[in-house]
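INTERNAL AUDIT FORM
Audit reference: QA-55
Scope: verify that the stored structure record matches its stored sequence.
Auditor: D.O.
Record contents follow.
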Amino acid sequence: MTTIKDVARAAGVSVATVSRAMHPELASSVSPKTREKINLAAAQLAYEPSPLARALKSSRSGLVGFIVPSTVNPFYVQVLRHLEAELAPAGYRILTSFLSEGRDETAAIQDLMALRAGTILFCGLDRSSEKVFRDNEDRCRPIQLFNAAYPNYTQIVMNDEEGARMATKHLLDLGHKKIFFAGGDERIEGYRKAYQDVGLPLPGPELQAPPFCIDEVRLAEQIRTSGATAVLGISRQGYHVCRAILLHLHLSIPDDISLIVYDDSEWAEMLGITTVAHPLEKIAQTVLACLQAKDPADFPLRTVIEPYLILRSSTKQLTN
């Protein structure tokens, strides 16, 4: 049986391009010359859309697109798992699209719309897809998760500033004053606020890694030279900070240095790392409530969900 992949291979284009070219509402996004090549290849191969594709064209009410921004961050796998567990029993199907080098958010949105997804869940950091959303407001509802680049679209976000503040406060309460911060964005404001709340001077740049740095050798050297007694690692940086401490500095956690990472994960649980965690079940339930609202205007534009601290064995009281 001929598949869309066979057509794409014969025409020398991507599967996504074939999908858009064969979609009556998205075909204009593909050049006439490319459409001609695709149509010719489809005719020569006697290609017919699958029953699933035909079903998707007839209805999009239960299809939810989820754009995964990272293929290496295990956090998003957990998010997807909870979304599936909550949405599937309610009759929704999740279509997943992964971002990667050479594949941007706008292309992912167009591909999901070609599959008739009526809702797009995404973690946009900027407004690069504003035009495609604006041009398709009658066909697609965007819901932002974790980041809120678009002020006029539904936002389900975490109180990340508070998460960083509570983690830093926990370390300060244990007597740590030199806390190395590896992260970026609004979380650093929570880190600074914890110092301000106890009347300590703000940490200098020597205690802050470059935003999104995952160079473990560089992180290890900066931790060593800073004299830090504790580290707060944000998201993916938390994983690389942990490796820097264990594999490059050969330090023991928490005997030599305390560690908290942002975003709970299986590896953090296995190593006994204290984490700032997201209530993923509540996030998925909030998404479902948003989808089931008869009128989007009935659902709050912005929902802020509070993180919580999971205390394990990676921090200890600092003694003089």
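Auditor finding: record pair retrieved intact. Residues 54-60 have pLDDT under 50 and may be disordered.
Action required: none
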